[in-house]
UniProtKB/TrEMBL annotation:
InterPro entries linked: ARM-type_fold, WD40/YVTN_repeat-like_dom_sf, WD40_repeat_CS, WD40_repeat_dom_sf, WD40_rpt, WDR72-like
Pfam family name, one: WD40
WD repeat positions: 538-560
Keyword line: Repeat, WD repeat
SUPFAM superfamilies from the UniProt entry: ARM repeat (SSF48371), DPP6 N-terminal domain-like (SSF82171), WD40 repeat-like (SSF50978)
Protein name (database record): Transducin/WD40 repeat-like superfamily protein
GO CC annotation terms, alphabetical: cytoplasm
Domain of life: Eukaryota
Organism: Panicum virgatum (Blackwell switchgrass)
Amino acid sequence: MVDRHPTPHAMKCHSVAALWSPSPPSHHVTAAAATPAALFTGAADGTVLHWPLATASASASPRPSSLLCAHAAAIVALCPLLSPASLLAACAAGVLSLFSASAPLRCLRRRSLPPWAGSPSLVAPLTSTSTSSSPRVAILCHAPDDGGHRHVSALVVVDARTLTVLHTAFHGTLSVATPRAIAVCGCGDEAVTAVLADVEGRAQVVPVAKGVADEGDLPRRLSVSSMSSVASAEMADGRVEAVALSHDGKVVALVLKTRCLLKCVAEGVVLGEMSLLGTPLCKGDKEEENRCSVGGFFLHGEEWNACAPDDGIVVRSLVLWSSSGAAAVYRVVVGASSFESEVVCEIPDILSMQGEVLEIKFCQLGQRLVRVESCSYKVAGSLLWKPKISIWSLDQFELGIAENKLPSSKLLGEGGLQVEEFKPERSHSHCDVNNVVEIQVCSSDSNNLERYGRTVSSSMVLSEDSYAPYAVVYGFHNGDIEVIRFLNVSPATAKFGGGGIYPLISERFFLGHKGAILCLAAHYMHAPSDSRNFHRALISGSSDCTIRVWDLDAGTLLSVMHHHVASVKQIILPPAWTYHPWDDCFLSVGEDGLVALVSLETMRVERMFPGHPGYTSMVAWEGVKGYIACLCRNLHTCNDAGSGLYIWDLKTGAQERIISGTASQSVFEHFCRGISKNSVTGSILGGTTSASSLLVPIFKDTSHLWSHAGKKGHAIPSVSTNHKNGSTVSVTVSAPTTYDFKGKTPAPDEARVFHGGNSVYSSEKGVSSHSVNKRIKCPIKCSCPYPGIASVRFDLTAIMSTQGMTNSNTDKQVRGHLHGENAKETLQPGMLDCPSGVHEMDSPSRESLEGRLLRFSLCFLHLWDVDCDLDKLLVDEMQVCKPEDCHIATGVVGDRGSFTLMFPGKEATLELWKSSAEFCAMRSLSIVSLAQRMITLSRSCTNASSALAAFYTRHFAEKVPDIKPPSLQLLVSFWQHPSEHVRMAARSLFHCAAPRSIPQPLRMHKNKAPDAVLSSSDNMNDFISAVQSASVSSDGELKADSGNVDKDDSDTANMISWLESFENQEWLSWIGGTSQDAMASNIIVAAALVVWYPSIVKAKLASLVVSQLIKLVMSMNDRYSSTAAELLAEGMESTWKACLGSEITHFMSDILFQIECLSTAPSSSAIHKTAVAVTMREALVGTLLPSLAMADVTGFFSVIESQIWATSSDSPVHVASLKTLTRAVRGAPKALAPYLEKAISYILHTMDPSNLIMRKACIISSMMALREMARVFPMVALNESMTRLAVGDAIGEIHNATIRVYDIESVTKIRILDASGPPGLPSLLTGSSNTTATILISALSFSPDGEGLVAFSENGLMIRWWSLGTGWWERLSKSLTPIQCTKLIYVPPWEGFSPNSARLSIISSILGHDKHGSSEKTKELDEADNLKLLLRNLDLSYRLQWVGRKTIKLTRHGQELGTFQL
């Protein structure tokens, strides 16, 4: 199939599957926030857990349902936003993320704060009175005190929708210490202020004034003096444990060990003091060594706060908690000279084990309090954390037995991460052999607890060797490394899997480390070597300060390295386009500040880069120039000493430059822009490592590499096959000039060659001739955002684009990479060879790469255990089965590398199907597209593929009735996808989902529906005509008639508002669309519903959407204009014709002008624009123009005839007009029958030999049009030598019936033949009818020698014969006098021929049947109605065939009616 559309402009369709390790992840809670329906907890590793909360019963056991992956540093703040419902997360690295608060909790935005802002610490939403303005948040970025010196802090105001910095409210040194609490108060946009409070009780009020500051520029330091500075009181019992600010910013609470002080922010006086002695917060037997901070906050809500301005009494409620988990709710009454406090209720503490560390946080959820506990436990010397939450009621109490005991809050539910969720489905036993353990499948339960009781400290997915991942590597805290292979690439080894081709087959252990595995990497060796006996290396770094290199294939230990004196945290592999020998090296990064370059060829440390002040958290390797950049960033400071960028020359080991301060981050991002992306992971991290892709800087332009190449005028990347190395797939590209830190002139661009996930620099000048101007895409990308959690992302567009790939080179790549020298053990030489161009998978040995990709994708994307019959069919027939021994879950792709991953279990996935229309659309589209592709790829999988497609289009909704119908707007975005299977799937899903998901503004209300059922299109046309009255103005706008009823105005306004809506369209971010895509999709959805489902949408919708649809066609949008043209064409006769009226003619003129503009595009246009132009021409000429021509035939001929003189002779408009005429002849020949003379005249005009330019451009299309006319219309005939053309009148006055004969070479009329009524019977003709038009010539045919012409007329049942000799023909050619026929033959009526038919034949007038009755009826018919009747009864099936030199055979519908001798 030809790619009609450019791939860069195809909508994104990504699906995600998650692989969870057997052990639950560690989650050390650092921030918590609650929304009305859920709790969110952020952890020190950057993860955010979503806990759905039940609304009622005490038996509720909340458990996390999804993991939000967007950060790689500790979460410092979570801020719920109400409009729209979303969650803002901020981490210590300065990254902000915005998640949708409703399922599927997708990351809508992911952005970085500008480097000058520093690290965020406190976040508070801003109040705004205007409903139209976007929500805003105030973010405080500060540096803590360091040796008595205060550092620069910034308070920035961020747009909560786009996460861009709107302006800077404050930038400078605060007059208070490090703020511990923030509150935003004030009403109106101008009077909003932010109150910052420190541990000493002092507060600083910062007005959030509107200013202008660019996001990336360093603003001037705004020094705002403190409006209220409260002196710290004497605190005899130690430091302040927590600070709480009221929501109006007027009262600050200082929580100490044994008491709590409340102070007035404005006046700086102490309002009162509460003693904590004797309460659960401060028991006498509590040890003072427990340094865990207590906390507190003010409850919000009218029921907890009251204010009486007359008496000056203010009531506030405060929650305080201790490190043991105990909490108390205080109600404080503050008057003019009085202060009272009482304990409303208490929450008991937690019974903890000896030596167990607890960290507690509380948050309010309406009338409930949620306690979040982080409990520590040790595994092999590593400290891990397990979260647990409990929900307590604030209005339901459990009274104690003792009289003096306070009322205790009622426990509504508790839950946490359950280890049972991660238990294996199968168990294995193993034996130790030479540090390598092969796990065989068996039924024994031995070592089950030992194996799955370990926790994962590092993980990665092996996928750089093939297009699909095949194994996952887990590194554990006890030092073990385990390789679990879940994909068997070779179908020949499917017999080991027990019924499917993708179960877990074997496992392997690498034992030897004495500490936790902190980093992993897998590298394929590029340079051939006789001395080296390994091809793939596994590199592991541990907390035992060692690095071990293993042979990944054989499982042996190759080397142990001890050049670090602290834990090894990162392994960096060379990126694409790296020179030899550096392409077989890696960088090791340790906590000792050392970065070392190690060669895998020599197994030695080749370079050492010491001198960093601390751990280099981010290291980037630029392979072309040979530089590395090491960023040492202190996440808790933004001063010059806190951050530094060290740039090293890899070849010499010399330090090139040191950049300090906030500029280091900007320069590091600039450095990373010159690094090529990894085709497997999609990030700049080279090769396959355990490093999280979330560590990579967030670029504003995600396609930075290719956009720079385009801006600098480099060649478009091309794909080529490297024939010298059959085991690799090489991609030769032209790369941009990179930054030279020595200040030298940039080197000229050179050819770079990709090798799988790794790369090698190619110095060869020659490039393979098998190159195409298209960048290869990896269809399946893998990453491990956090240890033990792997995400597998499926790109539907890339998977579908593999259908044209051959097996020869690709299979060599798979054999060479996956199996190396052991390829013979798993793959036979002729297994994957496919001699034909079409890949068929009827035998597993002939399975193509595309077939394996499709099966693998279905293996992870299909929802198992919902339809058992379907699951069995997939396993038995398609050989697709659920992967064993790994926990599979689903997920969604977020913005800029972020993910939302569901926890394992069918329930969590079903909740996603039930709550997100976008997820339903994307996942259903992916699976149905894959299933349809499997049908065309393999005949043996037809039943299973058809059942799979039917399940996700119809049967799924029947089995699970409450699932969401797919989003119609999202589905129509894929109607112009490059892949035919995706287009078909999108349309099928649209038709199945449309009746259930019609937008409310467009739906026909039942009480307004007419009594009659409007099921047919004819009834709908009558209904539309009766209800609407609209006319199209000259510029295409519809003007409503003055007779519209006022009560429909609101419905009309709602429909117009829906059609033009483009804001807050969440589905756009799923596919990478824009606001223009939102409006275009709405128009397409409305038009499709009008055309296909007119009975369930409002009748006025057609008149409202038609003008928008026309504008969309004329906009030449590469995603929607073709679809709009198809919808206009499909509904033209039934719907749009009544709405457009006379404007059809103007519309055709505009389209022809647009065609001329598309064809005369400048040569400098991009390739994808040329492809768009070709696609649009096909849609306009092949679909829309023929429908317009059939709707208004007269207007069409007037337009194309005017184009003859209005455009140039070589204009593509003429060819387009001829093609349109040809298609109109095929589509509606009867409508064109009265205009045969005009059609022939136009065709001959384009062949005029006096205009050689036009004749040369149109001759092929003109001859095709003539042949099509002769094929469709029996009254048009061509002789065998294609030199003569005869055209008879199909409909006309019987006295003026003629046949014109043309010479095609000279394009002149050479003869007119008289075909009027039968000679000698003129009186019969005059009495036949009062109408003037009738059916005249029914069939024509030239004699085989071209010297005679025979004609048949159904009106009169006559055959006429003109026998014209060559000499006589030539002699009389200049005379155009009508010539009478040589012979006339009457055809006897055949069986089934009725003289009483509506043909108004002469036979009926002769026999005199119903003469008076018919005359009365014809008087009532005007000419237009008579013409419609004639066209309806026009029979185009008559044919005259020569069966001899003087014998003619008359047929009708292929049935012989008689043979006649001439």
